[in-house]
Amino acid sequence: MQRNHYFFLSTLAIALLGACHQGKQHDKKNKHEEDSIAMRQQYANSPVLDGKTAISHMVFDKGLEVQLVAAEPLVVAPVAMTFDQAGRMWVVEMTGFMPDTAGTGEDKPDGKIVILEDTNHDGVMDKRTVFLDSLVLPRAICLVENGVLVATPPQLWFIENDHDKPGKRTLVDDQYAAGGNVEHQPNGLLRAMDNWIYNAKSDKRYRKVGNKWLKEDTHFRGQWGITQDDQGRLYYNNNSENLLGDYFPPGLGGTNPLQQRAAGFDEKIVPDNRTYPLHPTPGVNRGYQKGTLDDSLRLVNFTAACGPLIYRGGLLPATYAGNAFVAEPSANLIKRNILSDSSFVAKGVQAYQGKEFLASDDERFRPVDLVTGPDGAIYIADMYRGILQHKTYLTEYLKNEIKMRKLTLPLNCGRIYRVIPAGSHPANVMLHPDSLCNQLLSSNGALRDKAQQLLIDHHEVSQAPRLRELLKDSQHPIAQRHALWTLEGLHQLNSEDLAFVWQQPDPSLKVQGLAALPSVLNSANVKAAVASLDTLSDNSYLAPVVAYVLPALSKADKAAAARLEDKMIKAYAPNRYVAAALVSNAANREAALLKQVTAWNPDTTLVLRKQLLAVLKNLDNKANAKKMEALRTSLPRGYKIFNTVCQTCHGKNGEGIASMAPPLNESNWVNGNKNAFISIVLFGLTGPVEVHGKVYKAPEINGDMPGIGASDEFNDTDIAEVLTFLRSAWNNKAGKITAADVQQVRKQSQGRQKPFTAGELPK
């Protein structure tokens, strides 16, 4: 009976994959179905493997070795990790994630922050200390001074470390992860080269100065995981995108709330999203949909990209230096990408076609976070679970896959691996206070980062002379950048340091100096700074960064900033990167700047003009504040679902998010035929879709719109209310949708699993 049940579901899935053919291909169809069924039956079971056995199921680059660093019961469901100065690993355990397909008990406070230690220095963790427990879905961690930042939705806490026990607690942000769901809430907490802490799935950054925590707006970035390169540029991804990132230092821009996306930020670094699993992967959420799996039932493109890492460890062969590694837990693999620079533009290609850096045929291998260790190895956090998809988006197809292969249990597993050169025995480096400046010369970027942070955390202002020596050491350009930002973090950087930097031939070092200028600019040095900026602005490589520091210059000398802005408008109005910086600088005066630009040059094709018009179009969102607050009161469930599910991809203001989803505000689909809108939300939407007269399709929008009709979380009344909310929000003006309307559409599409295409929907 069980076999017949499996046979039926397998045949159904194959039909949904489009495996059926007609006429003369009948025999070919039968053969294809038989092969597919055989493959699915071969992977009908998903056995639980111990950590060491799981390594034997991995295939990875020749010349490398994968070692087990920790496994259950020492670690359970790890989702994030970092190292302290003693080489100990701090791990976030999200044990409450999806205990079953209904998410039963997801709000149970069973998450932990644990410290793992290798006491006998053999490369294997052997001691576990629970630093913090009773957490609900903890998601990120960052070590700062004498404590640790911990993200537990919705709060961000700073907890002092009292001999590896939690001490005084300070609430840093009570809205850190407000709204969204576990897949779409801020995470990462990357302490970047510029001394600010950045996040994925967030437009906020944080910094501790004395006893105060600063919080500032920045660019919205990514979904799960964030990393940096040797220039301090940030990289991230969303679930369907291999690698996204910034061309410029992260602290620039992000200050104009009307600017949806600035050129040079959130760029597609590696547009190739193809994946090459080691085995059939039918257990992905939309595996029934044509194009999701290939003929061998293997995932075609990323669907759960996360945990990116720019490798800067210096331990692996030189060919891996600066490569970007991306985890894909739904396909049980880790991707390798090779990056390169052309001017300030970073681009990348996949390292291989037809294979991966590391792949496993163990379906429970779920790599979700990648970091470089103090030994230079790549460390892999493996949740080791069967269920990866959150309940909000779980389809009936995937529920069946989970049931058939008994993927719900166990829930008490978790592994951490490291990748090293085969046969090597790298030591876990401990950082000592008297050698921190020398560590800025290390070939291991993780050690350089940690040394910079410790110098700042310990307030080592006495090291300023040595740091200036490193700043002037042109033989070690990476150390120069760290020295500059360490001086900035110690509040020892001055205008003379920057004047020296701007006289150097290395343009990337000049960029760092420009990015650091706002922290030292004042009325005493502004005149000299203006002269330098005027000269630097003539260089097209540096011009976007000069434009991004205009707001800081304006605070010190408004007239000088206006003159430089006018110069840059006339020199770079067609340049999309400079234009984006000028728009960022024009917060609250966009209309005046547009008038100035038009008076100078009425050309309607100017990039700067187009960007200003796009920003002005968003201005009326502010006028909708009262309307949205009224809807929050009248449609509370709809408002909550919007903030939990919809805004994570379509944006809080309904204007869409680059690479993720098109606008909802004034959308023809939201305001149009209600049955079409209901169908999209119930079953999802795939393929090209036209909104505001613009066609959204791959590669601009790479992910499909998932339906929530199969979720146990929402009933038809809930869905009707969120649809009514959306049809009333912002500038939308459409009629109410009732639960009966939703039920009618369900009835009409009874038995449907796959998402609709735009052509299938009523106009």
Automatic annotation (TrEMBL):
GO molecular function annotations of the record: electron transfer activity; heme binding; metal ion binding
Alphabetized UniProt keyword annotations: Heme, Iron, Metal-binding
InterPro entries: 6-blade_b-propeller_TolB-like, Cyt_c-like_dom, Cyt_c-like_dom_sf, DUF7133
Domain annotation Cytochrome c: ranges: 633-730
Pfam families: Cytochrom_C, DUF7133
Heme recorded as keyword: yes
Protein name: C-type cytochrome
Organism this protein belongs to: Chitinophaga eiseniae
Species lineage: Bacteria, Pseudomonadati, Bacteroidota, Chitinophagia, Chitinophagales
